[in-house]
């Protein structure tokens, strides 16, 4: 079933039945509940802080040393899902990259997919910032991230540097 068919079905429903359906979804689905709660009382600052903390926790959990990149990426997706604030999203993406770089500096060489994840998020952050027109304000921060990776293997520094130069030297 596609969105056109759903739209047609919902458009034909009486207001009370539609409201009952939404309330049933609210009660039975955590994702719908979270979405509607945010829709009714949006708290972008609270969402930002929660996602920021989740990213930090993904790299530096309270227990153990095992990072969870998927948890960090979920936090980015969560922010993107609820907010259209591209400046805060880019800030979170750069925070993800900063945490990845710090983790590498703290614990030594990681593996290729780790570096691919961090450099991919970094590149997307810079591309989004350029598209939205606020990339120049982020140049010192981006340059600092790249500089901290000098000497790290697996092409990590090269990937970050290439992403930086695509945005700032063209």
Can you summarize this structure?
The protein is mainly α and 170 residues long.
> Count of DSSP helices?
9
The helical percent reads over 70%
**Total domain modules:** 2
- The CA-CA distance between the termini, in Å, is 45 Å
Largest sheet: none
Order of helices and strands: HHHHHHHHH
Radius of gyration: 20 Å
Q: Roughly what fraction of the amino acids lie in strands?
A: under 5%
Number of strands: 0
Mean pLDDT over the residues: 93
Task: Describe what this molecule looks like in 3D.
The protein has 170 residues and is an all-alpha fold. The protein has two domains: 41 residues, no CATH class; 125 residues. The protein has nine helices and no strands. The longest helix has 22 residues. It is elongated. It starts with a helix and ends with a helix.
Question: What labels describe this entry?
Answer:
170 residues; mainly alpha; 2 domains; 9 helices; 0% strand
Question: Layout of helices and strands, plus pairs?
Answer:
Elements: H1 3-11, H2 15-28, H3 30-40, H4 44-59, H5 69-82, H6 86-107, H7 112-132, H8 135-148, H9 156-168
Helix pairs in contact: 2-3, 4-5, 4-6, 5-6, 6-7, 6-8, 7-8, 7-9, 8-9
